């Protein structure tokens, strides 16, 4: 898996990381660092860290094991094909998304780790009452490195509470509810995707199995940790802000960075789009503006080439279907 450079910010000597910019694949070493040293609202991570400190549990050990062992796992469940969702399912832009927080407290209260990304709920036929969420994987991998380093240095599970949570907004503006992640049923590390199971009940998003053509108009859910100067941003979770931004599908690339096209045998491994997403937007949906279906997942930004420059970088929604059984084949394995 390609290494990813997560922006970091320090406040009270506490490390925070969040989904943002990735290094260039076609022009190695090309990076856009203008978003580094951004500030995550301290109240949010303080409340999250207080939650895991109270529990005293090391939940991440199980989740990290599941992330690795369930890589490429095909669930015995079908994800509904919704390239043209019903009108009732098209009005989801007003539906809330979630923040996903992976966090690790420590024996030294001044050394804490919180990673944040976006996510959204999808419909599945898995048994139980939990909701399945899609998000990016690189924030979990970031905290995995911190967790493994702490383990090597002899830090025991009992002295370092850890956990992962799903956060959704609720009234008043800026308020939120928080639910622990109970499991990671499947992941695609190479595609930077994972599925999270949580008891939080949310409306699910329609997902299209078909790639959108270049030029398709999209809506993307952007997140900011401060109030930007441009209009349209509204308070969201714990001091963050959100905005639906209009954009365009620009094209596709395979894992080697070569240009690929829909309707061919090319591998559509990654999706290029505009405009550039903000830090914290990774893991959020890219929505077809006409149909209302999710057609991709944001991962960050990447240098495409020296002519085109930095572009929005994501993964097509067809990759989500790789973690689910084909219709009619569930319960037959």
Could you explain how this protein is built, in words?
It is a single chain. This protein has 333 residues and is mainly beta. 14% of the residues lie in helices and 37% in strands. It is built from 5 helices and 18 strands. Strands 4-5-6-9-8-7 form a 6-stranded antiparallel beta barrel. The two termini are 29 Å apart. The model is unreliable at 1-39 (pLDDT under 50).
- Rg of Cα set: 19 Å
Structural class: mainly beta
Query: How many strands?
Result: 18
Percent range for β-strand residues = 35-45%
Distance between the termini: 29 Å
Unreliable stretches: 1-39
* Biggest sheet statistics: 6 strands, antiparallel, barrel
Number of continuous helical runs: 5
SSE pattern, N- to C-terminal: EEHHEHEEEHEEEEEEEEEEEHE
Morphology call: globular
Oligomeric state: single chain
**Which bin fits the share of residues in helices?**
10-25%
Order of strands in the sheet with most strands: 4-5-6-9-8-7
Mean pLDDT score: 81
Brief account:
The chain has 333 residues and is mainly beta.
Topology:
Elements: E1 7-11, E2 14-18, H1 42-55, H2 60-69, E3 75-78, H3 87-90, E4 98-104, E5 113-122, E6 131-136, H4 138-152, E7 162-170, E8 175-188, E9 193-198, E10 217-224, E11 234-235, E12 241-253, E13 259-260, E14 270-274, E15 285-288, E16 294-305, E17 309-316, H5 318-321, E18 324-325
Task: For the structure shown, list the relevant keywords.
six-stranded antiparallel barrel; disordered N terminus; mainly beta
């Amino acid at each position: 898996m390609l290494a990813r450079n997560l922006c970091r910010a320090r406040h009270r000597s506490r490390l925070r990381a969040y989904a943002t910019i990735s290094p260039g694949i076609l022009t190695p070493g090309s990076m856009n660092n203008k978003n580094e040293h951004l500030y995550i609202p301290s109240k949010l991570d303080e409340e999250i860290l207080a939650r895991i400190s109270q529990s005293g549990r090391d939940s991440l050990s199980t989740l990290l094991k599941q992330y690795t062992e369930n890589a490429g796992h095909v669930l015995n469940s079908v994800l509904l094909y919704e390239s043209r969702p019903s009108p009732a399912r098209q009005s989801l832009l007003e539906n809330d998304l979630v923040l996903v927080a992976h966090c690790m407290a420590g024996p030294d209260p001044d050394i804490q780790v919180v990673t944040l990304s976006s996510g959204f709920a999808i419909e599945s036929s898995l048994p139980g009452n939990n909701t399945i969420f899609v998000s990016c994987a690189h924030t979990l991998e970031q905290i995995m490195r911190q967790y493994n380093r702490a383990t090597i240095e002899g830090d025991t599970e009992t002295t370092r509470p850890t956990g992962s949570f799903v956060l959704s907004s609720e009234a008043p503006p800026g308020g939120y509810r928080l639910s622990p992640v109970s499991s990671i049923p499947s992941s695609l590390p190479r595609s930077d995707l994972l599925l999270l199971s949580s008891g939080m009940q949310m409306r699910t998003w329609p997902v299209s199995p078909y790639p959108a053509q270049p030029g398709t108009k999209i809506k993307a859910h952007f997140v900011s940790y401060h109030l930007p100067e441009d209009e349209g941003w509204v308070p969201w979770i714990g001091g963050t802000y959100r905005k639906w931004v209009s954009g365009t599908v620009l094209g596709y690339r395979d894992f080697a960075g070569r240009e690929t096209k829909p309707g061919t045998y090319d591998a559509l491994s990654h999706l290029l789009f505009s405009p550039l997403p903000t830090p914290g937007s990774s893991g959020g949906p890219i929505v077809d503006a006409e149909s209302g279906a999710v057609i991709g997942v944001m991962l960050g930004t990447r240098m495409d080439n020296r002519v085109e420059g930095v572009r929005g970088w994501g993964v097509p929604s067809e990759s989500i279907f790789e973690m689910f059984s084909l219709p009619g084949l569930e319960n037959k394995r």
